[in-house]
Amino acid sequence: MRTTETVIAPSLLAADFARLAEASAAVAGDADWLHVDVMDNHFVPNLTMGPPVVKSLKAATDVPLDCHLMITDPKHWAVGYAELGAYNVSFHAEACDDPVGLARDLRAAGTRAGLAVDRDTPIEPYLELLGEFDTLLIMTIKAGFGGQSFMPELLNKVRAARAAVASGDLELRIEVDGGIADDTIAQAAEAGADAFVAGTAVYGAADPAQACRRLRSLADQASRRGRGDPTPDSRPPLAGGD
Ligand code: DX5
Ligand code: ZN
Hints:
The chain has 242 residues and is of the alpha/beta class. It has a single domain (7-234), classed as TIM Barrel (Alpha-Beta Barrel), CATH 3.20.20.70. The protein is 36% helix and 17% strand. It has 9 helices and 8 strands. Helix 5 links the parallel strand 5 and strand 6 (135-139). Helix 7 (185-191) packs parallel to helix 9. It is globular, with a radius of gyration of 18 Å. Bound molecules: D-xylitol-5-phosphate and zinc ion. Zinc ion (ZN) binds next to strand 2. Zinc ion (ZN) is lined by residues 11, 35, 37, 68, 177, 197.
């Protein structure tokens, strides 16, 4: 597994569902996580995949599986994904009345716990819970479908979460999901995101692996800018000379 500061997570939602093993292999050297969008036709109108597909994916690839559960009743289902070997399991705050309890169950089952926050949900009530989680998934669209336009106004949630992580000295990935592409990833990284889900931008590209590399490089540059680190472009000119 890669251990870089920027996590790139291609979303299989934009891949050919009859060729998921090939889609996984296509990004295996360049993706940090594979993002698996589980939708149940209740929490969101769309219907995608569930435990049997995750089980098969786990056998087909070594890339860590980042399961994004867009389902009602995650309390009932989420631990099952941990038991199948998911690396991270994110459930929606809107679908769970005891997020801390479920996060603890997930960690006890040996996986990372993720809290997902949909477009219309404020982040503030959850900031004090972040120590219980390993990832915070902030939707940058309304959850349910790939291929939607990125909503930059939702980055205020990323900024608030990044400030909470800094002030609490927390170890938490801030993941953004929805409309992440070459022209949007930099603003998300500058706002403080450090994990990036990309469906259309990866699997809609002629070369998915190259798309991952390009996204990573754009995010890395922007995170350095966000932190105020010097880069070759921003270094002041050398003094002296003639
Ligand atoms: C949508 C899913 C996203 C989706 C993103 O509800 O959670 O992960 O795959 O797709 P793009 O990158 O095409 O917006
Ligand atoms: Zn997702």
